[in-house]
Amino acid sequence: MSTGRARLPELKDAVMENDWVRFLVSPGLGIGWVFLFLFLPMTVILVISFSAPGDFGNVIYEFTLENYQRFWNADVYKNIIFESLVYGFVVTLLSLPLGYTAGYFLGRSKTDWKWILLGLVVLQYWVPFIIRTYAWIIVLSNNGVLNQLLLSLGVIGSPLNIMYTNFSMILGLTVSLLPFMILPVYVSVSAIEEDQIHAAKTLGATDFRAFREITLPQSLPGIVSGVLFVFIISAGAFLAPTLLGGPNTRMIAPVIETVFILDFNWPFAAALSIIYFAIIAFLLYLFTRRVDLEEALETGAT
Amino acid sequence: MATDHATTGETDVDAERGYFGVTISSRVKWNLIRAVTVAVYVMMILPLVVIVINSFNPSRLGNFPPQTLSIRWYEALLADELMLRALLNSLQVGVAAAFGAGLIGTLTAMGFVRNDFRMQDALVIVLLSPLLIPPIIVGVAATIFFGQAGIPRSLGWLVVMHTLLGLPYAFLIIRSQLYLFDETLEEAARTLGADRLTTFREVTFPIISPSIITSMVIVFVISFGEFTATQFWVKRTTTTVPVVIFSMLRTSISPKIDALATVMLVVTILVPLIVLGIRRWVLKT
Protein backbone atom coordinates (compact mmCIF):
# COMPACT_ATOMS: atom_id res chain seq x y z
CA MET A 1 0.00 0.00 0.00
CA SER A 2 2.74 2.43 0.96
CA THR A 3 4.43 2.08 -2.42
CA GLY A 4 1.06 2.56 -4.07
CA ARG A 5 0.61 5.85 -2.26
CA ALA A 6 4.05 6.99 -3.17
CA ARG A 7 3.37 6.25 -6.82
CA LEU A 8 0.15 8.17 -6.93
CA PRO A 9 1.72 11.61 -7.58
CA GLU A 10 3.94 10.05 -10.22
CA LEU A 11 0.93 8.41 -11.80
CA LYS A 12 -0.88 11.75 -11.69
CA ASP A 13 2.08 13.40 -13.37
CA ALA A 14 2.27 10.69 -15.99
CA VAL A 15 -1.42 11.10 -16.77
CA MET A 16 -1.24 14.89 -16.82
CA GLU A 17 1.82 14.90 -19.05
CA ASN A 18 0.37 12.39 -21.49
CA ASP A 19 -0.37 14.26 -24.71
CA TRP A 20 -3.41 12.17 -25.50
CA VAL A 21 -4.99 12.63 -22.11
CA ARG A 22 -4.35 16.34 -22.28
CA PHE A 23 -5.80 16.58 -25.76
CA LEU A 24 -8.92 14.71 -24.69
CA VAL A 25 -9.62 17.12 -21.84
CA SER A 26 -8.47 20.30 -23.50
CA PRO A 27 -9.47 21.03 -26.27
CA GLY A 28 -11.05 17.60 -26.83
CA LEU A 29 -13.99 18.22 -24.50
CA GLY A 30 -15.34 21.15 -26.51
CA ILE A 31 -14.73 19.51 -29.88
CA GLY A 32 -16.32 16.31 -28.60
CA TRP A 33 -19.35 18.24 -27.32
CA VAL A 34 -19.95 19.75 -30.76
CA PHE A 35 -19.45 16.39 -32.50
CA LEU A 36 -21.73 14.53 -30.11
CA PHE A 37 -24.58 17.04 -29.86
CA LEU A 38 -24.42 18.73 -33.25
CA PHE A 39 -22.54 16.73 -35.88
CA LEU A 40 -23.89 13.36 -34.80
CA PRO A 41 -27.50 14.66 -34.82
CA MET A 42 -26.81 16.20 -38.25
CA THR A 43 -25.59 12.80 -39.46
CA VAL A 44 -28.70 11.15 -38.03
CA ILE A 45 -31.01 13.52 -39.91
CA LEU A 46 -28.94 12.99 -43.06
CA VAL A 47 -29.64 9.24 -42.77
CA ILE A 48 -33.30 9.82 -41.91
CA SER A 49 -33.73 12.17 -44.85
CA PHE A 50 -33.19 9.09 -47.05
CA SER A 51 -35.80 7.10 -45.13
CA ALA A 52 -39.56 6.92 -45.51
CA PRO A 53 -42.04 8.47 -43.06
CA GLY A 54 -44.14 6.06 -41.02
CA ASP A 55 -47.25 6.89 -38.97
CA PHE A 56 -47.06 9.25 -35.99
CA GLY A 57 -43.53 10.48 -36.57
CA ASN A 58 -42.05 7.02 -36.93
CA VAL A 59 -39.28 6.47 -39.40
CA ILE A 60 -39.04 3.47 -41.73
CA TYR A 61 -35.37 2.77 -42.27
CA GLU A 62 -35.39 1.79 -45.92
CA PHE A 63 -33.31 3.68 -48.41
CA THR A 64 -35.47 5.99 -50.51
CA LEU A 65 -35.05 9.19 -52.46
CA GLU A 66 -38.74 9.99 -51.92
CA ASN A 67 -38.12 13.08 -49.76
CA TYR A 68 -35.66 14.65 -52.13
CA GLN A 69 -37.89 13.83 -55.13
CA ARG A 70 -40.78 15.51 -53.36
CA PHE A 71 -38.64 18.60 -52.88
CA TRP A 72 -37.40 18.57 -56.46
CA ASN A 73 -40.73 17.88 -58.18
CA ALA A 74 -42.79 20.60 -56.51
CA ASP A 75 -41.85 24.23 -57.04
CA VAL A 76 -43.24 25.33 -53.68
CA TYR A 77 -40.31 24.26 -51.48
CA LYS A 78 -37.70 25.54 -53.92
CA ASN A 79 -39.48 28.89 -54.01
CA ILE A 80 -39.68 29.05 -50.22
CA ILE A 81 -35.93 28.57 -49.87
CA PHE A 82 -35.31 31.12 -52.61
CA GLU A 83 -37.66 33.63 -50.94
CA SER A 84 -35.95 33.09 -47.57
CA LEU A 85 -32.61 33.97 -49.11
CA VAL A 86 -34.16 37.03 -50.79
CA TYR A 87 -35.63 38.23 -47.47
CA GLY A 88 -32.24 37.65 -45.87
CA PHE A 89 -30.63 39.70 -48.62
CA VAL A 90 -33.15 42.55 -48.30
CA VAL A 91 -32.81 42.71 -44.51
CA THR A 92 -29.01 42.71 -44.83
CA LEU A 93 -29.18 45.48 -47.43
CA LEU A 94 -31.43 47.60 -45.18
CA SER A 95 -29.52 47.06 -41.96
CA LEU A 96 -26.14 47.81 -43.54
CA PRO A 97 -26.58 51.60 -44.09
CA LEU A 98 -28.60 52.07 -40.87
CA GLY A 99 -26.25 50.00 -38.72
CA TYR A 100 -23.15 51.42 -40.36
CA THR A 101 -24.27 54.99 -39.76
CA ALA A 102 -25.01 54.34 -36.10
CA GLY A 103 -21.79 52.35 -35.65
CA TYR A 104 -19.83 55.12 -37.37
CA PHE A 105 -21.44 57.73 -35.13
CA LEU A 106 -20.55 55.75 -31.99
CA GLY A 107 -17.02 55.22 -33.25
CA ARG A 108 -16.34 58.88 -34.05
CA SER A 109 -18.50 60.86 -31.68
CA LYS A 110 -16.94 62.44 -28.63
CA THR A 111 -20.22 63.13 -26.89
CA ASP A 112 -20.46 62.37 -23.17
CA TRP A 113 -23.47 60.20 -23.97
CA LYS A 114 -21.35 57.77 -25.93
CA TRP A 115 -21.00 55.12 -23.21
CA ILE A 116 -24.70 55.20 -22.48
CA LEU A 117 -25.49 54.88 -26.19
CA LEU A 118 -23.04 51.99 -26.48
CA GLY A 119 -24.55 50.34 -23.41
CA LEU A 120 -28.00 50.62 -24.97
CA VAL A 121 -26.85 48.71 -28.07
CA VAL A 122 -25.32 45.99 -25.91
CA LEU A 123 -28.54 45.76 -23.89
CA GLN A 124 -30.50 45.57 -27.14
CA TYR A 125 -28.20 42.75 -28.23
CA TRP A 126 -29.16 40.87 -25.07
CA VAL A 127 -32.93 41.35 -25.28
CA PRO A 128 -34.45 38.06 -26.49
CA PHE A 129 -35.76 37.94 -30.07
CA ILE A 130 -39.20 36.91 -28.89
CA ILE A 131 -39.57 40.21 -27.00
CA ARG A 132 -38.12 42.38 -29.74
CA THR A 133 -40.43 40.69 -32.25
CA TYR A 134 -43.50 40.88 -30.01
CA ALA A 135 -42.87 44.59 -29.43
CA TRP A 136 -43.66 45.27 -33.10
CA ILE A 137 -47.07 43.60 -32.78
CA ILE A 138 -48.04 46.15 -30.10
CA VAL A 139 -46.66 49.01 -32.16
CA LEU A 140 -47.89 48.14 -35.65
CA SER A 141 -51.18 46.25 -35.28
CA ASN A 142 -54.50 47.83 -36.25
CA ASN A 143 -55.26 49.05 -32.74
CA GLY A 144 -51.57 49.35 -31.98
CA VAL A 145 -49.66 52.30 -30.63
CA LEU A 146 -48.70 53.74 -34.01
CA ASN A 147 -52.23 53.66 -35.40
CA GLN A 148 -53.73 55.06 -32.18
CA LEU A 149 -51.21 57.88 -32.31
CA LEU A 150 -51.77 58.70 -35.97
CA LEU A 151 -55.58 58.49 -35.57
CA SER A 152 -55.62 60.81 -32.57
CA LEU A 153 -53.41 63.28 -34.40
CA GLY A 154 -55.79 63.14 -37.34
CA VAL A 155 -53.06 62.16 -39.78
CA ILE A 156 -55.09 59.17 -40.95
CA GLY A 157 -58.85 58.52 -40.98
CA SER A 158 -58.76 54.76 -40.58
CA PRO A 159 -56.07 52.41 -39.19
CA LEU A 160 -53.23 51.50 -41.51
CA ASN A 161 -53.06 47.80 -42.29
CA ILE A 162 -49.32 47.45 -41.93
CA MET A 163 -49.27 44.55 -39.48
CA TYR A 164 -49.07 40.97 -40.82
CA THR A 165 -47.45 42.00 -44.08
CA ASN A 166 -44.03 41.54 -45.61
CA PHE A 167 -43.37 45.13 -44.57
CA SER A 168 -43.89 44.52 -40.85
CA MET A 169 -41.84 41.33 -41.03
CA ILE A 170 -38.90 43.00 -42.76
CA LEU A 171 -39.07 46.02 -40.44
CA GLY A 172 -39.13 43.88 -37.29
CA LEU A 173 -36.31 41.65 -38.53
CA THR A 174 -34.13 44.57 -39.63
CA VAL A 175 -34.44 46.44 -36.35
CA SER A 176 -33.91 43.25 -34.32
CA LEU A 177 -30.66 42.57 -36.16
CA LEU A 178 -29.26 46.12 -36.11
CA PRO A 179 -27.06 45.48 -33.03
CA PHE A 180 -25.27 42.75 -35.00
CA MET A 181 -24.30 45.42 -37.53
CA ILE A 182 -23.71 48.36 -35.16
CA LEU A 183 -21.32 46.69 -32.70
CA PRO A 184 -18.72 45.27 -35.12
CA VAL A 185 -18.78 48.47 -37.20
CA TYR A 186 -18.29 50.52 -34.02
CA VAL A 187 -15.36 48.33 -32.99
CA SER A 188 -13.56 48.70 -36.32
CA VAL A 189 -14.34 52.41 -36.79
CA SER A 190 -13.18 53.35 -33.29
CA ALA A 191 -9.88 51.56 -33.96
CA ILE A 192 -9.07 53.91 -36.86
CA GLU A 193 -6.48 56.53 -35.98
CA GLU A 194 -7.95 59.97 -36.42
CA ASP A 195 -4.55 61.32 -37.48
CA GLN A 196 -4.81 59.35 -40.72
CA ILE A 197 -8.04 61.11 -41.63
CA HIS A 198 -6.62 64.50 -40.67
CA ALA A 199 -3.55 63.77 -42.78
CA ALA A 200 -5.69 62.89 -45.79
CA LYS A 201 -7.65 66.13 -45.38
CA THR A 202 -4.52 68.17 -45.03
CA LEU A 203 -3.29 66.65 -48.27
CA GLY A 204 -6.47 67.87 -49.93
CA ALA A 205 -8.84 64.89 -49.87
CA THR A 206 -12.56 65.62 -49.77
CA ASP A 207 -14.74 64.17 -47.00
CA PHE A 208 -15.96 61.52 -49.40
CA ARG A 209 -12.50 60.58 -50.62
CA ALA A 210 -11.10 60.38 -47.07
CA PHE A 211 -14.01 58.15 -46.10
CA ARG A 212 -13.61 55.92 -49.15
CA GLU A 213 -9.85 55.53 -48.88
CA ILE A 214 -9.32 55.40 -45.14
CA THR A 215 -12.46 54.80 -43.07
CA LEU A 216 -14.24 52.36 -45.35
CA PRO A 217 -11.35 49.91 -45.97
CA GLN A 218 -10.47 49.85 -42.29
CA SER A 219 -14.05 49.27 -41.20
CA LEU A 220 -14.49 46.42 -43.69
CA PRO A 221 -13.94 43.69 -41.05
CA GLY A 222 -16.88 45.12 -39.11
CA ILE A 223 -19.07 45.21 -42.20
CA VAL A 224 -18.16 41.63 -43.14
CA SER A 225 -18.95 40.37 -39.67
CA GLY A 226 -22.25 42.26 -39.54
CA VAL A 227 -23.34 41.08 -42.99
CA LEU A 228 -22.51 37.46 -42.12
CA PHE A 229 -24.54 37.45 -38.91
CA VAL A 230 -27.47 39.47 -40.23
CA PHE A 231 -27.83 37.36 -43.38
CA ILE A 232 -27.61 33.96 -41.67
CA ILE A 233 -29.98 34.92 -38.87
CA SER A 234 -32.54 36.69 -41.07
CA ALA A 235 -32.69 34.04 -43.83
CA GLY A 236 -33.26 31.37 -41.18
CA ALA A 237 -35.59 33.48 -39.04
CA PHE A 238 -38.52 31.76 -37.42
CA LEU A 239 -40.16 34.29 -35.09
CA ALA A 240 -40.44 37.30 -37.39
CA PRO A 241 -42.21 35.48 -40.28
CA THR A 242 -44.44 33.56 -37.85
CA LEU A 243 -45.49 36.49 -35.66
CA LEU A 244 -45.15 39.54 -37.93
CA GLY A 245 -45.46 38.12 -41.44
CA GLY A 246 -48.61 37.98 -43.53
CA PRO A 247 -50.30 35.20 -45.51
CA ASN A 248 -47.87 35.79 -48.38
CA THR A 249 -44.77 35.62 -46.21
CA ARG A 250 -43.16 32.23 -46.69
CA MET A 251 -39.83 31.39 -45.14
CA ILE A 252 -38.01 28.12 -44.68
CA ALA A 253 -37.81 27.95 -40.86
CA PRO A 254 -41.59 28.09 -40.23
CA VAL A 255 -42.11 25.58 -43.06
CA ILE A 256 -39.65 23.11 -41.51
CA GLU A 257 -41.43 23.57 -38.18
CA THR A 258 -44.84 22.88 -39.75
CA VAL A 259 -43.63 19.75 -41.53
CA PHE A 260 -41.96 18.57 -38.33
CA ILE A 261 -44.67 19.37 -35.76
CA LEU A 262 -47.98 19.45 -37.61
CA ASP A 263 -47.37 16.97 -40.43
CA PHE A 264 -45.21 14.85 -38.11
CA ASN A 265 -43.16 14.00 -41.20
CA TRP A 266 -39.69 13.68 -39.71
CA PRO A 267 -37.91 12.37 -42.83
CA PHE A 268 -39.16 15.24 -44.99
CA ALA A 269 -38.36 17.82 -42.30
CA ALA A 270 -34.89 16.25 -42.13
CA ALA A 271 -34.51 16.46 -45.92
CA LEU A 272 -35.55 20.15 -45.95
CA SER A 273 -33.08 20.85 -43.11
CA ILE A 274 -30.27 19.08 -44.97
CA ILE A 275 -31.01 20.93 -48.23
CA TYR A 276 -31.15 24.30 -46.51
CA PHE A 277 -28.00 23.51 -44.54
CA ALA A 278 -26.20 22.54 -47.77
CA ILE A 279 -27.17 25.86 -49.38
CA ILE A 280 -26.00 27.88 -46.36
CA ALA A 281 -22.76 25.87 -46.22
CA PHE A 282 -22.19 26.54 -49.93
CA LEU A 283 -22.77 30.29 -49.46
CA LEU A 284 -20.36 30.26 -46.51
CA TYR A 285 -17.83 28.45 -48.67
CA LEU A 286 -18.09 31.21 -51.32
CA PHE A 287 -17.79 33.73 -48.48
CA THR A 288 -14.62 32.15 -47.04
CA ARG A 289 -12.88 32.33 -50.40
CA ARG A 290 -12.83 36.08 -49.92
CA VAL A 291 -12.71 36.57 -46.15
CA ASP A 292 -11.54 34.79 -43.04
CA LEU A 293 -14.62 33.16 -41.53
CA GLU A 294 -13.03 32.74 -38.12
CA GLU A 295 -12.11 36.42 -37.95
CA ALA A 296 -15.60 37.48 -39.01
CA LEU A 297 -17.20 35.33 -36.32
CA GLU A 298 -14.76 36.55 -33.71
CA THR A 299 -15.46 40.20 -34.54
CA GLY A 300 -19.17 39.59 -34.19
CA ALA A 301 -19.21 37.44 -31.10
CA THR A 302 -16.78 39.16 -28.76
CA MET B 1 -22.66 68.57 -28.68
CA ALA B 2 -21.62 71.53 -30.80
CA THR B 3 -18.07 70.24 -30.90
CA ASP B 4 -19.25 66.94 -32.36
CA HIS B 5 -18.70 67.76 -35.97
CA ALA B 6 -15.03 68.37 -35.41
CA THR B 7 -14.60 64.67 -34.75
CA THR B 8 -15.31 63.74 -38.37
CA GLY B 9 -11.91 65.19 -38.89
CA GLU B 10 -13.29 67.48 -41.55
CA THR B 11 -11.81 70.85 -42.26
CA ASP B 12 -13.59 73.97 -43.36
CA VAL B 13 -12.00 73.55 -46.77
CA ASP B 14 -14.42 70.68 -47.47
CA ALA B 15 -17.36 72.99 -47.12
CA GLU B 16 -16.03 75.12 -49.95
CA ARG B 17 -15.03 72.31 -52.29
CA GLY B 18 -18.07 70.04 -52.19
CA TYR B 19 -18.71 67.14 -54.56
CA PHE B 20 -21.24 66.18 -57.20
CA GLY B 21 -21.53 69.91 -57.60
CA VAL B 22 -23.31 70.02 -54.26
CA THR B 23 -21.72 71.71 -51.33
CA ILE B 24 -22.67 70.26 -47.98
CA SER B 25 -20.77 71.45 -44.99
CA SER B 26 -19.20 68.92 -42.64
CA ARG B 27 -21.51 70.11 -39.96
CA VAL B 28 -24.61 69.29 -41.96
CA LYS B 29 -23.22 65.89 -42.86
CA TRP B 30 -22.47 65.11 -39.23
CA ASN B 31 -25.97 66.24 -38.27
CA LEU B 32 -27.41 63.86 -40.87
CA ILE B 33 -25.38 61.01 -39.39
CA ARG B 34 -26.65 61.99 -35.97
CA ALA B 35 -30.26 62.09 -37.18
CA VAL B 36 -30.02 58.57 -38.64
CA THR B 37 -28.44 57.35 -35.40
CA VAL B 38 -31.27 58.88 -33.37
CA ALA B 39 -33.82 57.20 -35.68
CA VAL B 40 -32.04 53.85 -35.23
CA TYR B 41 -32.15 54.21 -31.46
CA VAL B 42 -35.81 55.22 -31.48
CA MET B 43 -36.69 52.12 -33.53
CA MET B 44 -34.67 49.88 -31.24
CA ILE B 45 -35.74 51.23 -27.86
CA LEU B 46 -39.25 52.67 -28.20
CA PRO B 47 -41.11 49.39 -28.89
CA LEU B 48 -39.55 47.92 -25.73
CA VAL B 49 -40.61 50.96 -23.70
CA VAL B 50 -44.15 50.49 -25.01
CA ILE B 51 -44.16 46.90 -23.69
CA VAL B 52 -43.07 48.03 -20.23
CA ILE B 53 -45.69 50.82 -20.08
CA ASN B 54 -48.42 48.54 -21.40
CA SER B 55 -47.69 45.95 -18.73
CA PHE B 56 -49.04 48.45 -16.17
CA ASN B 57 -52.14 49.12 -18.26
CA PRO B 58 -55.27 47.86 -16.45
CA SER B 59 -57.34 47.73 -19.65
CA ARG B 60 -57.37 44.40 -21.49
CA LEU B 61 -57.57 46.07 -24.90
CA GLY B 62 -54.48 48.08 -24.12
CA ASN B 63 -55.45 51.62 -25.14
CA PHE B 64 -52.28 53.63 -25.30
CA PRO B 65 -51.17 55.52 -23.34
CA PRO B 66 -52.94 53.96 -20.32
CA GLN B 67 -55.24 56.28 -18.32
CA THR B 68 -54.38 54.64 -15.01
CA LEU B 69 -51.69 52.26 -13.90
CA SER B 70 -52.11 48.96 -12.13
CA ILE B 71 -50.11 45.87 -11.27
CA ARG B 72 -53.02 43.47 -11.90
CA TRP B 73 -51.14 41.66 -14.71
CA TYR B 74 -48.17 41.05 -12.45
CA GLU B 75 -50.55 39.66 -9.83
CA ALA B 76 -52.04 37.42 -12.50
CA LEU B 77 -48.52 36.31 -13.35
CA LEU B 78 -47.76 35.40 -9.73
CA ALA B 79 -50.95 33.35 -9.58
CA ASP B 80 -50.05 31.41 -12.72
CA GLU B 81 -48.19 28.25 -11.79
CA LEU B 82 -47.11 27.44 -15.34
CA MET B 83 -45.43 30.81 -15.74
CA LEU B 84 -43.60 30.62 -12.44
CA ARG B 85 -42.45 27.13 -13.38
CA ALA B 86 -41.25 28.43 -16.76
CA LEU B 87 -39.36 31.30 -15.14
CA LEU B 88 -37.70 28.93 -12.68
CA ASN B 89 -36.79 26.52 -15.51
CA SER B 90 -35.31 29.30 -17.63
CA LEU B 91 -33.20 30.57 -14.75
CA GLN B 92 -31.97 27.08 -13.85
CA VAL B 93 -31.12 26.12 -17.42
CA GLY B 94 -29.43 29.48 -18.05
CA VAL B 95 -27.21 29.24 -14.97
CA ALA B 96 -26.33 25.58 -15.62
CA ALA B 97 -25.53 26.26 -19.28
CA ALA B 98 -23.40 29.24 -18.25
CA PHE B 99 -21.33 27.02 -15.97
CA GLY B 100 -21.20 24.24 -18.58
CA ALA B 101 -20.08 26.47 -21.43
CA GLY B 102 -17.75 28.43 -19.11
CA LEU B 103 -15.98 25.25 -18.02
CA ILE B 104 -15.80 23.61 -21.45
CA GLY B 105 -14.97 26.92 -23.12
CA THR B 106 -12.05 27.51 -20.73
CA LEU B 107 -10.59 24.04 -21.24
CA THR B 108 -11.05 24.23 -25.00
CA ALA B 109 -9.59 27.70 -25.37
CA MET B 110 -6.60 26.66 -23.22
CA GLY B 111 -6.08 23.63 -25.41
CA PHE B 112 -6.16 25.68 -28.60
CA VAL B 113 -3.86 28.46 -27.41
CA ARG B 114 -1.33 26.38 -25.48
CA ASN B 115 -0.94 23.39 -27.81
CA ASP B 116 -0.09 22.84 -31.42
CA PHE B 117 -1.99 20.08 -33.12
CA ARG B 118 -3.04 19.10 -36.58
CA MET B 119 -6.06 20.63 -38.32
CA GLN B 120 -6.29 23.40 -35.75
CA ASP B 121 -7.94 25.85 -38.18
CA ALA B 122 -10.57 23.35 -39.26
CA LEU B 123 -11.31 22.41 -35.65
CA VAL B 124 -11.90 26.07 -34.77
CA ILE B 125 -14.60 26.19 -37.43
CA VAL B 126 -16.06 22.99 -35.93
CA LEU B 127 -16.25 24.72 -32.55
CA LEU B 128 -17.84 27.81 -34.07
CA SER B 129 -20.35 25.87 -36.18
CA PRO B 130 -23.22 26.27 -33.68
CA LEU B 131 -23.13 29.97 -34.70
CA LEU B 132 -23.41 29.10 -38.39
CA ILE B 133 -26.04 26.37 -38.48
CA PRO B 134 -29.53 27.93 -38.30
CA PRO B 135 -31.21 27.19 -34.96
CA ILE B 136 -34.25 25.65 -36.67
CA ILE B 137 -31.94 22.92 -38.03
CA VAL B 138 -30.17 22.45 -34.68
CA GLY B 139 -33.62 22.14 -33.09
CA VAL B 140 -34.92 19.53 -35.51
CA ALA B 141 -31.65 17.55 -35.60
CA ALA B 142 -31.30 17.31 -31.82
CA THR B 143 -34.98 16.38 -31.37
CA ILE B 144 -34.69 13.53 -33.88
CA PHE B 145 -31.33 12.45 -32.43
CA PHE B 146 -32.50 12.34 -28.80
CA GLY B 147 -35.80 10.83 -29.94
CA GLN B 148 -34.12 7.98 -31.83
CA ALA B 149 -31.75 7.46 -28.89
CA GLY B 150 -34.79 7.09 -26.63
CA ILE B 151 -33.84 9.97 -24.33
CA PRO B 152 -36.95 11.75 -23.01
CA ARG B 153 -37.20 15.53 -22.80
CA SER B 154 -35.79 16.96 -19.58
CA LEU B 155 -34.10 20.07 -18.19
CA GLY B 156 -30.79 18.20 -18.57
CA TRP B 157 -31.42 17.95 -22.31
CA LEU B 158 -31.94 21.72 -22.43
CA VAL B 159 -28.75 22.35 -20.43
CA VAL B 160 -26.72 20.13 -22.75
CA MET B 161 -28.02 21.87 -25.87
CA HIS B 162 -27.82 25.42 -24.48
CA THR B 163 -24.23 24.67 -23.46
CA LEU B 164 -23.62 23.75 -27.10
CA LEU B 165 -25.21 26.98 -28.36
CA GLY B 166 -23.21 29.10 -25.89
CA LEU B 167 -19.90 27.29 -26.39
CA PRO B 168 -18.68 29.32 -29.43
CA TYR B 169 -19.15 32.58 -27.52
CA ALA B 170 -17.37 31.26 -24.42
CA PHE B 171 -14.53 29.87 -26.53
CA LEU B 172 -13.99 33.11 -28.48
CA ILE B 173 -14.16 35.42 -25.45
CA ILE B 174 -11.81 33.33 -23.29
CA ARG B 175 -9.42 32.68 -26.16
CA SER B 176 -9.04 36.40 -26.91
CA GLN B 177 -8.06 36.93 -23.26
CA LEU B 178 -5.56 34.07 -23.47
CA TYR B 179 -3.93 35.65 -26.53
CA LEU B 180 -3.17 38.75 -24.43
CA PHE B 181 -1.75 36.61 -21.67
CA ASP B 182 1.97 36.66 -20.88
CA GLU B 183 2.96 33.02 -21.29
CA THR B 184 6.25 33.47 -19.46
CA LEU B 185 4.24 33.71 -16.23
CA GLU B 186 3.15 30.11 -16.70
CA GLU B 187 6.66 29.05 -17.63
CA ALA B 188 8.02 30.72 -14.51
CA ALA B 189 5.57 28.87 -12.31
CA ARG B 190 6.44 25.57 -13.93
CA THR B 191 10.18 26.22 -13.61
CA LEU B 192 9.61 26.84 -9.92
CA GLY B 193 8.18 23.34 -9.68
CA ALA B 194 4.42 23.82 -9.97
CA ASP B 195 2.58 21.09 -11.87
CA ARG B 196 0.11 21.90 -14.63
CA LEU B 197 -2.92 21.93 -12.34
CA THR B 198 -1.26 24.21 -9.78
CA THR B 199 -0.01 26.52 -12.51
CA PHE B 200 -3.51 26.79 -13.91
CA ARG B 201 -5.11 27.34 -10.50
CA GLU B 202 -2.58 29.84 -9.19
CA VAL B 203 -1.48 31.71 -12.32
CA THR B 204 -3.68 31.24 -15.38
CA PHE B 205 -7.14 31.11 -13.83
CA PRO B 206 -6.92 34.35 -11.79
CA ILE B 207 -5.83 36.23 -14.92
CA ILE B 208 -8.45 34.86 -17.31
CA SER B 209 -11.30 34.69 -14.79
CA PRO B 210 -12.79 38.08 -15.84
CA SER B 211 -13.28 36.79 -19.38
CA ILE B 212 -14.72 33.52 -18.05
CA ILE B 213 -17.28 35.50 -16.07
CA THR B 214 -18.12 37.68 -19.09
CA SER B 215 -18.60 34.61 -21.24
CA MET B 216 -20.83 32.97 -18.63
CA VAL B 217 -23.03 36.06 -18.51
CA ILE B 218 -23.41 36.00 -22.28
CA VAL B 219 -24.20 32.28 -22.32
CA PHE B 220 -26.85 32.87 -19.64
CA VAL B 221 -28.43 35.62 -21.72
CA ILE B 222 -28.40 33.47 -24.88
CA SER B 223 -29.89 30.50 -23.05
CA PHE B 224 -32.52 32.64 -21.32
CA GLY B 225 -33.79 34.07 -24.61
CA GLU B 226 -33.35 31.13 -27.02
CA PHE B 227 -36.62 30.14 -28.66
CA THR B 228 -36.35 28.76 -32.19
CA ALA B 229 -34.45 25.58 -31.34
CA THR B 230 -35.74 25.29 -27.76
CA GLN B 231 -39.42 25.12 -28.81
CA PHE B 232 -38.84 21.52 -29.96
CA TRP B 233 -36.99 20.47 -26.83
CA VAL B 234 -39.46 21.29 -24.05
CA LYS B 235 -42.46 19.52 -22.60
CA ARG B 236 -45.05 21.08 -20.32
CA THR B 237 -43.01 20.69 -17.13
CA THR B 238 -39.70 21.81 -18.66
CA THR B 239 -41.06 24.76 -20.63
CA THR B 240 -39.16 28.05 -20.68
CA VAL B 241 -40.30 31.69 -20.66
CA PRO B 242 -39.85 32.35 -24.42
CA VAL B 243 -41.87 29.23 -25.26
CA VAL B 244 -44.66 30.32 -22.89
CA ILE B 245 -44.74 33.81 -24.41
CA PHE B 246 -44.91 32.33 -27.90
CA SER B 247 -47.78 30.00 -27.09
CA MET B 248 -49.66 32.86 -25.38
CA LEU B 249 -49.21 34.97 -28.52
CA ARG B 250 -50.74 32.16 -30.57
CA THR B 251 -53.94 32.19 -28.50
CA SER B 252 -54.56 35.79 -27.48
CA ILE B 253 -52.95 39.15 -26.97
CA SER B 254 -53.20 40.10 -23.32
CA PRO B 255 -51.27 42.58 -21.18
CA LYS B 256 -50.23 39.53 -19.17
CA ILE B 257 -47.76 38.87 -21.99
CA ASP B 258 -46.39 42.39 -21.54
CA ALA B 259 -45.93 41.71 -17.83
CA LEU B 260 -44.06 38.46 -18.54
CA ALA B 261 -42.00 40.13 -21.27
CA THR B 262 -41.12 42.95 -18.84
CA VAL B 263 -39.98 40.41 -16.24
CA MET B 264 -37.85 38.77 -18.91
CA LEU B 265 -36.46 42.14 -19.96
CA VAL B 266 -35.55 42.98 -16.37
CA VAL B 267 -33.82 39.62 -15.86
CA THR B 268 -31.82 39.88 -19.11
CA ILE B 269 -30.66 43.37 -18.23
CA LEU B 270 -30.21 43.09 -14.46
CA VAL B 271 -28.42 39.74 -14.26
CA PRO B 272 -25.51 40.82 -16.51
CA LEU B 273 -25.29 44.26 -14.90
CA ILE B 274 -25.18 42.80 -11.39
CA VAL B 275 -22.69 40.04 -12.26
CA LEU B 276 -20.42 42.35 -14.24
CA GLY B 277 -20.74 44.99 -11.50
CA ILE B 278 -19.63 42.50 -8.86
CA ARG B 279 -16.78 41.41 -11.13
CA ARG B 280 -15.60 45.01 -11.43
CA TRP B 281 -15.87 45.56 -7.69
CA VAL B 282 -13.90 42.38 -6.93
CA LEU B 283 -11.20 43.31 -9.45
CA LYS B 284 -10.79 46.71 -7.82
CA THR B 285 -10.37 45.42 -4.28
From TrEMBL, chain A:
Keywords per UniProt:
Cell membrane, Membrane, Transmembrane, Transmembrane helix, Transport
The protein's matches in CDD domains, at most eight in alphabetical order, are given as: TM_PBP2 (cd06261)
Gene Ontology BP term (one): transmembrane transport
Primary localization: membrane
Stored InterPro entries: MetI-like, MetI-like_sf
Q: Does the keyword Transmembrane helix apply?
A: yes
How does this protein lie in the membrane? Answer: Multi-pass membrane protein
Transmembrane residues, as ranges? 21-48, 85-106, 115-139, 167-187, 222-244, 264-287
Top-rank taxon, per record: Archaea
What is the similarity comment for this entry? Belongs to the binding-protein-dependent transport system permease family. CysTW subfamily.
What is this protein identified as?
A: ABC transporter permease subunit
Automatic annotation (TrEMBL), chain B:
Q: Which residues cross the membrane?
A: 35-56, 91-113, 125-149, 155-174, 203-225, 259-278
Which SUPFAM superfamilies would you find in this protein's record? MetI-like
Q: Does the keyword Transmembrane apply?
A: yes
- InterPro entries in the record, alphabetically? MetI-like, MetI-like_sf
Its cellular-component GO annotations read: plasma membrane
- Name the membrane topology term: Multi-pass membrane protein
The UniProt entry, under Gene3D superfamilies, shows: MetI-like
**What are the recorded Gene Ontology BP terms?**
transmembrane transport
> Which family is it part of?
Belongs to the binding-protein-dependent transport system permease family.
What is the protein name stated in its UniProt record?
A: ABC transporter permease subunit
